[in-house]
Amino acid sequence: MQHSSQNLYKKLLGAAGETQAVKYLQKQGCKIIKRNYTTPLGEADIVMQEGGDTVFVEVKTRTNDAFSTPGSAVDYKKQKRYRDIAKLYFLKMGEEVNVRFDVVEITQNGVNWIKNAF
Fold it and tell me: Is the entire prediction scored with pTM above 0.85?
């Protein structure tokens, strides 16, 4: 049971972080298109519009950064998955526009928005 309660905690922490990220990004003038955009290739936490860019955002929430920053957890495999999700997104939309990949870190110190993270 301990394992499943830990998974539940991580899911709740992640959902709270995503909500905080959405509110922050909206205050910055971004238009949220989709939350938890799910495809057979995986999920993008947020798809949004900022200016002329369609932005795919990975949200990383941590209660502390003793080992590393939350954004450092977005490794090559996760970056590739986001690129593949974006390709599928534009294929479904029938258009191709400027795309960007951002990371939003949520920590006890607040929100850190990393544009063009990868």
Answer: yes
